[in-house]
Protein 1
Amino acid sequence: MPAEGPTPAASPPAPATPQRWRMAEHWPELVTALTDQSIESVVLLLRGLELLVRKGRLTQAEYKVLALPAERLKHVGMSAQQIVRFQSGRVRQSHEKIDLAYLLECVLQERRDELALQGLAVWRKFEPADVLIDPALGFSLAQAMLDWSIRFGHRIDLRLDLTPATPARARLRLETYADPVPEQDSVFDDGIHWLLLRQIAATDGAVELERSLDANRVVLSATFGRTLAQAGAAPAARPEEVSSDPEAPFKSVSGAHVLLVSDDPATCEEAQAIVRKLGLTVEAAGTEQAREAMRRREPDLIVIDAASLPEHAALELRTALAREHAQLPVLEIVPTEGGASTHGLHSGIARDALAQSLGPAVMFTLSGLL
């Protein structure tokens, strides 16, 4: 029997074929780059216009004419940023019991100057409705519904009620009165605001959206699947009892004082502007000045920019607050969304979501909803 010859060596694996680069796989990076640049440019433009007003080279009326389209461009950029953020799946939700009427008033409070600038009349008729929703996501949904609606008319009626079906579900309707009546194509166009609404609803998973054109009204509605039972709820207010004053629901938190601790000038400027829009007073201090600022005036809320502080400094400040001001509510600005949390007195807001999340977090924390 002949001897077997040596086993032939195995052939080396064929080199992997390089993957072809496709732009379609990188659209989030493209959107992010475009929106970052556009928002930064708009902010610089608005600062320049404000400087011209202060120097007397531009009247307030001229400023409004130029600032309005710039603000709209800024909102479009922020909407695109949100679509990418929600679509990426990096948003960690924390479903909380939220008074939906109060959330809506938070949105109206934040947007009151812009609505007045556009000459929009806003009326509301709210029934009590508690839903389970991530606070920041719910705030973004209400903002996006308002953005979608204000393009069509001069007056918006916000109606919050419970559906007659069992189990009852909270339903928010924005009825925009239009003159002239918009074309049907513009109402059903899948523009940036509608895409954002659909993405928010998909991210939450329990919100149903509808849009329609009814006579001289454009109607946008959202129905909330996670609605809590409203046993013994107060009856709905009659239309003549509904206040059109956007500050009315905020008497309990108006005048509240917020202390911002940050070592980053850019974050400090942005955060202060957001808090001031809510009608609150805010003082900024660096790490070394924070304790002295608290001795001068006891804040109702402290916001710590942990993203800008050395880790040991943030830890020392937290320890001191826990020891000396155990009941003082604290919000933290954290570097990445993975570190964000909205549980308990110490809550976290991602630095890259500051514009969307800080406002509602401050209002909810001061009102005891978080």
Protein 2
Amino acid sequence: MGKSRERLVLVPDNRYANAYEEVYAEAEQAPDSLRAGVEAIVAIAEQHPVDAREGLWRLQGDWKTWELLEPYFDGGPDQLALRLGAAIQVARSELASPRPQLRQRLPELLEWLGVSRRP
């Protein structure tokens, strides 16, 4: 997911500062950085579903973060908006359930994001 160490501004405080460092570290070491980043985010979200839902809500209007993500999506900003918007909706609805199982939705999230399946 690039060399950026800049924290994604999803929540107004530092709850995710360390988490995003972990996500970037995982992504940078993986051959498929977008997949690794999504998998790391899912792991964090499962531990803190309420905070993750808040973060996803804020992400929808965080254009600076969207610009950072755009190079990882084919089709430019329009495809990014469609793909990321769909994935956010799936994740938010799952995280709102009484017993969220976001990891089970990982294949669907990756499909919406346009990430190819594992070989």
